[in-house]
Design brief:
The protein has 150 residues and is mostly helical. The chain has two domains: 11-42; 65-144, Cytochrome c-like domain (Cytochrome Bc1 Complex, Chain D, domain 2, Orthogonal Bundle). The protein contains five helices and no strands. The chain has helices spanning 11-19, 21-42, 75-85, 108-117, 132-144. Helix 1 (11-19) packs across helix 2 and helix 3 (75-85) packs across helix 5 (132-144). The chain is globular. The N and C termini lie far apart (86 Å).
């Protein structure tokens, strides 16, 4: 009869102890995972890749409540708003998680509606999150980078 010795600890346990996984690596990985997930969800990650029924893909006419010219010229404030809320998905206005804002510009009313209501993967940014003044400054910045159709 042949006897096979059972290891007292698994190779995985030995590796974890050797690199300090349980005390150092795992908390760091958990924190990194949570931070990445929060950033991804903020831009609407996890949603359908195509707009579902009743959602707009970004084209078309905006409702009358979003009409009007851009009410700010504060490009620097708009750039700060963009960096906080938009740049992760639209780096420098280009495509990444979200589409390029420069390659396919929209009129200001349509951009207001997209920002406030969201669609597809993009979640809405209500006024309690992005104030009306910040939204208008954001539009001024978008205009400065060629992302607003005249």
């Amino acid at each position: 009869m042949i006897w096979i010795a059972q290891p007292l600890v698994s190779s995985r346990q030995l590796w974890r102890e050797a690199v300090g996984f349980s005390s150092l690596v795992r908390p760091g990985l958990i924190g990194l995972s949570l931070a990445c997930s929060a950033s991804w969800l903020a831009c609407g990650g996890g949603g359908a890749s195509e707009p579902s029924a009743g959602e707009s893909s970004g084209g078309g006419e905006a409702s009358a409540e979003y009409a009007g010219p851009i009410a700010s010229t504060d490009v620097e404030a708009g750039k700060a708003v963009f960096g906080t809320y938009c740049d992760d998905c639209h780096p420098d206005g280009d495509a990444d998680v979200g589409p390029s804002l420069i390659a396919d510009p929209h009129e200001a009313p349509r951009l207001r509606q997209q920002i406030r209501e969201g669609s597809g993967k993009m979640k809405p940014f209500p006024e309690k999150r992005v104030s009306k003044d910040d939204l208008e400054a954001l539009l001024a910045y978008l205009d400065s980078i060629g992302a607003v159709k005249k």
